[in-house]
Amino acid sequence: MQFGLYAPIPMAAVGSPEVAQANSEAPHPLPAGRRDAQFDHGVDLLTAADAAGFDLTLFAERHLGSDIHGWINAAAIASRFERMRALVAVHPGLWDPMMIAKMAASLDRICKGRMAINIVNGWFDEEFRMFGGTVLQGEERYRRTTEFIEILRGAWANETFSYNGDHYKLEAGQLMLKPATPTPPEIFSVSRSDRGRDFIAETCDWWFIDYPKEAETTDEVLLGIEVAIADMNARAKKFGRKVRFALNPFVALGDTKEAAFDATIKRIFEYDPDPDTRKIEKRMLPATRAGCIGRPDEVLTQLRRYEDLGVELVLCKIIPTVENVRLIGRELISPLRGGGGPLKIAS
Predict the structure, then answer these.
(1) Alpha carbons 314 and 342: distance in angstroms, whole number
(2) Is the pLDDT of residue 126 over 60?
(3) Which end of the chain has less Cβ packing within 10 Å, N or C?
(4) pTM score of the predicted model
């Protein structure tokens, strides 16, 4: 099983004093000679995660917010990684696909062939309009994204590439800088809808499985994910493809499940006295039902259940501290890979 985590930025991190500081300072100039706190924390956290055995970092993208831009953050930090991949978010409709093809090839070469793209079909209409994008709904949005990905792959694979779609047209496009390896960057995405699942099955390499809306218990989450994987396998088979599966549980370790959960909530409100309600309710709480909060042995058992279902990657939502990623490396990653004991991690 592979392990990932989020780069610590305001839209994706909870319980981080560095991110809270960066968020409060964002509307103002920084003191002379100082970098943004979320960047310095990102360097410390993610290089520690790289050493601890993590495999992937998601650099999320939020334009209408105080987050450092995902591609700039990834380029500045991921070149330091020795094992982790940089998974960078992209919103089709805000970017031209040839520009992203060039940016991805550039980052892939900087990262020794370890970058991937997370396609976000988009929901934030205000952000799209403010930053020059075109808002589409339903079927047209998926058609545009499919064309976007076809151009990426065509430009990476061919000396020249032409395309005549409904949303994009390209005549003899040239990408003179190719990705670092013959295998192009993989495409990740998430979608819950029936049409979105068909898009994943036909086009993407990885699917972030969304939590079943009706699931209230861990057993119900497991059952829902089992059903979702079977459904996606059947859809992908129709297209002669195989999709790989990822999940983003909230991971917190402690002496008991209750102690780990309580410590997490206390930490969130310590540094976010007025936390983003949407981030807590929509992003964190469903992920806490995945059963990955508690004693290390309990969490290991749960991760093996997901692995048995076909989940190959867990993108961990965590309190983003260096100590936490080292703890996860020692108590979860190493045992799952047969290490049996703590990793030798430099302090």
Answers:
(1) 20
(2) yes
(3) C
(4) 0.93
